[in-house]
Structures are given as structure tokens and as C-alpha cells.
Write a structure and sequence with these properties.
By secondary structure, the protein is α/β, with parallel strands linked by helices. The protein is built from 14 helices and twelve strands.
């Protein structure tokens, strides 16, 4: 049994659940016991400037015993840095060390902490090709592992609302509202064309749209308990982005969740979004406001097309992005890092497709 200690950002770290917590049970069946050590005060600093020094000191104090505990484990796993945009106790954790990255974190504060942490670790796991290409500049040992979806939890469900009601849905943190605002005029046109349609926003805060009819916008505060049902009730899932480094670093997780629940998607074909679109007819890539209007209007009018695309989307998630598929690949990566023998081939479905692929062999997706 390979024993791994995993340092995560705690309750306010969005990738903690998909990239660590949901792996713990399936990894154990594959010979990897992972202990999560989350930050109790949270990875990110409070908004009030006066509180930040106290937050930082508390974070460092609570992390030190966890770092000392790493001596009893075979491998240290960092799910992002321990303290936002800084390298602190990481050099004192036991080697070998694995650094897990699912975002373009080097754009923050000049990226020095990202480069240093990549060099301190023995292996870097990246959530997509764009990230792998960047981190291979600082560490030659890079592999690509997409953010997985628990397809047992996220699955198609019987519509709990009026089947005649169209719900265009978006789920994410309020920091992503700027992407929605970028396509607001297109959403306004679609809602005017379809007065019975609703734009559903599931987030931590309500958005501030300037152009959309208030009666056709529904804000629901995100909760872990309700998120699956709220996606299942949607008709179409959307994920607009801009063509920035931050957007190209995203791992398309909300898109994958929509697809797991059998929804067709309309997304900006940026970075990994474009990669997922190329796997099958799961929806539309929209690069202009006109394309956003056309794609949404087409899907709203054609229920048969929505159903067909939703079925393909669900199958692609199960075949390429499910925890069942990706957990064996993560286990194999960790075993390879520690220098133990690789797992038997029967435990590695699709081995070689996403496992330990050098980023130099993976083209960076571009908008189409």
C-alpha cells in the first residue's frame, strides 16, 4: 500500500473535491492510501487587509504539524500551494513530491511561486495540455490528468420541473461572472426570442446583469447538496470564456459536469473546451455573439437534437473523464513517481491515452 499525504486548500478551494477528495476511495482499491490535510483557515486570504497577517500566521502554524507528519508517508502531494501565491513549508515536506495543477496559477504575482514549487517537486500533474506545456519549462517530469467527474453522482435525472420550460444554465464562482457579461447581449436576444426561457445562475453571489429581463433570470445559491439536481433540471449548459491565459488554463470542469448530466452544451471553444468538443457532437462552440444566439436558438427549438447530443455527452464523460477511468491513471502515476512497479494492465483502462504524456507531444488547443 502506497501511503500519500495530500495538502489541500480547505473549504474555499474549488478543486479540492474533484482533484483529491473524490479520488480517495477508488485509490485505496488500487493500492494507494491518501490522507487529506486541508487548510482549516482556507487557502485564500480574507478580503479585509488587516486580517491577512493573522490569517497567514494561522495558516503557517496549522500546516507545520502536517508537514512534519509527512515523514511517515511515502509521497507528498500538493494540490496547489499551501499559502496563496507563496512557497512556505513545501520544501520541508518529504520527497518525492507531486505538484497538482488545474489552473494558470503563474499569472498571479509574477508566477515566481509557481516556478519554484514546480522545481521543488519530483513530478507535476497538469489538468490539460496548455498547463503541461507551461510547467514543462520548469520541470521535465510532467503528465496530463483531466479533472474527473463522479459519474455516479452526476448523472441524467428525470426533469423535476415543467418539461416545456427551457433553462439555460451556468454554474460557477462569482469571479467568473465577467465571462457571462461578455455574452450578455447574446443572452438578451435569446431570451427575447424565447419568452418562456430562463437563465439559471448557480453561484455564491447573485450576478448584476444590465440588459437581461429580470423575470427571466433565476439566481440560486450554490450548495453541494443541491448542485446535481439543479444541473439535471437544466436544458442547456453554457460556459463562455475569453481568449486569455487564465481561460486557456481552465480544465472545463463545469462543461464536464453539464455533460455528465446528459446536457448539450454551448461553450467558448477556448483551450480544453475545444478539446472536449472535438470528441463528439456534444453541443456547439460559439466564438461570436451571433454564434451564441444561433447555437442557443437551435438547441431550444430542437428537442431531438438536445437529446441526442446529451446522450453523446454522457458517454464521452464516462469514457474519458470519469473517476472510474482516471483513478487508475493517477494511481499508476503515483506508483511510478515513488519508483514502485507499475500496476497490472488490467487495472489501467485506457492506459497511455492520458497517463504520463509529455506536454511537448500534446498540441495546445486553439479556438476554431
Amino acid at each position: 500500500m502506497l501511503r500519500v499525504i495530500a495538502y489541500t486548500g480547505g473549504h474555499n478551494a474549488p478543486s479540492r473535491v474533484p482533484r483529491v477528495q473524490q479520488y480517495i476511495t477508488p485509490l485505496k482499491a488500487l493500492g494507494v492510501e491518501m490522507l487529506e490535510c486541508p487548510s482549516r483557515v482556507g487557502l485564500y486570504p480574507p478580503r479585509e487587509l488587516w486580517r491577512r497577517p493573522f490569517w497567514g500566521l494561522q495558516n503557517l502554524a496549522e500546516r507545520l504539524p502536517d508537514v512534519l507528519r509527512s515523514r511517515r508517508y511515502d509521497l507528498s502531494f500538493f494540490q496547489r500551494e499551501m499559502l496563496s501565491t507563496m512557497v512556505t513549508w513545501e520544501p520541508f515536506a518529504k520527497r518525492p513530491r507531486v505538484f497538482d495543477v488545474d489552473d494558470a496559477i503563474w499569472i498571479n504575482r509574477g508566477g515566481r511561486f509557481a516556478r519554484r514549487l514546480a522545481k521543488l517537486c519530483d513530478h507535476v500533474i497538469c489538468g490539460n495540455c496548455f498547463l503541461a506545456e507551461e510547467f514543462s519549462k520548469w520541470n521535465p517530469r510532467v503528465s496530463i490528468l483531466p479533472t474527473p467527474v463522479d459519474t455516479h453522482e452526476f448523472h441524467p435525472g428525470a426533469r423535476a420541473c415543467d418539461p416545456q420550460r427551457t433553462i439555460i444554465g451556468w454554474m460557477g464562482l462569482s469571479s467568473g461572472f465577467r465571462f457571462l457579461y461578455g455574452v450578455e447581449s447574446a443572452l438578451r436576444q435569446v431570451l427575447r426570442l424565447h419568452p418562456g426561457a430562463t437563465l439559471r445562475i448557480i453561484s455564491n453571489e447573485p450576478p448584476s446583469f444590465q440588459e437581461l429581463p429580470q423575470g427571466q433570470v433565476e439566481f440560486i445559491r450554490w450548495t453541494r447538496e443541491e448542485q446535481v439536481r439543479l444541473i439535471q433540471e437544466m436544458t442547456i449548459g453554457i460556459m463562455p470564456l475569453d481568449n486569455s491565459i487564465e481561460s486557456r488554463g481552465k480544465c472545463s470542469f463545469k462543461m464536464l459536469l453539464y455533460m455528465a448530466c446528459g446536457l448539450p452544451v454551448v461553450v467558448s471553444p477556448i483551450g480544453m473546451n475545444a478539446e472536449v468538443l472535438r470528441k463528439g457532437e456534444v453541443g456547439f462552440g460559439a466564438s461570436s455573439l451571433e454564434e451564441w444566439v444561433s447555437a442557443l436558438d437551435d438547441l431550444i427549438r430542437d428537442a431531438e437534437k438536445r437529446l441526442g447530443m446529451g446522450k453523446i455527452a454522457r458517454k464521452i464523460i464516462k469514457d474519458h473523464y470519469s473517476v472510474d477511468i482516471l483513478a487508475p491513471q493517477l494511481a499508476a502515476t503515483l506508483h511510478a513517481v515513488i519508483g514502485t512497479a507499475a500496476l497490472p494492465a488490467k487495472l489501467l483502462p485506457n492506459a497511455g491515452q492520458n497517463f504520463t504524456q509529455e506536454s511537448s507531444s500534446q498540441p495546445v488547443s486553439s479556438p476554431r
